[in-house]
Every structure is written in structure tokens, then in C-alpha cells.
Amino acid sequence: MSTSADTLPAVQSHFADNLERLLGLHRLRAEDVHALLGVSMTTVSNWRNGHKTPGLESAAKLAELFEVNAVDLVYLPFPELLDEIASPERFERVEKKLQRKVAVVWLGGLRTTSVPSDKKVEA
Prior knowledge:
123 residues; 434 Repressor (Amino-terminal Domain); globular
């Protein structure tokens, strides 16, 4: 008889693999996930390494970002998740949304950074 503790590593490894592949697919960095979700870099690292899985709120936010089902994001092996996300229209829509969100987050952070008045900033 299998206990929930026996099945936990498989769940973690699917999530870690899915997250890594989605990050690569959409050219995102751990720093982007940290900024977009408001979680620590340690948390993102633990997710990517398979040491932990996200809580309900973070899983829902990630699922919304990537436009996937949160349960599928955590539990499905990537080939099955890929079947859910494979349409070119979906990919383009998600890609544009993610690029926009990442730009807003990072540009917002740059606005709070002071630049010495003797340094010229070029656009």
C-alpha cells in the first residue's frame, strides 16, 4: 500500500521539470518568477530543484501566468502538459503576456533605482 509520503517525490519531480521546461520555453529566469510572484529566490530555487512544490496560491499564480491548469502543472509529466499547451496561438498569447509582465516588473524596479546626476542614461 502506498502512502502519500511515497508519492510526494514523483509530484515534486513533475512540477520541477514542468517549471524548468516552461521557463525555458518562454525564456524566463528564476529572477523573473521571483519578481512576478513575489516569492523569495530560495523558494524559486527549491521549486526548480524539486525540493518543494508551491502552495495553492503560488501554483494558481504560476498556472495563470503560463495559462495551464494548476493541478496539471504540479501533477502531469511534461509530455502530457505539453499536449495541453501546444497550440501556436496559445504560445504566442502567453509569450506576449509574459514579456509585458516581465518588462513592467523590471522597469518598475528601475524607476526606484537612483542614478547619479553626473551619469548620462541613454535610452
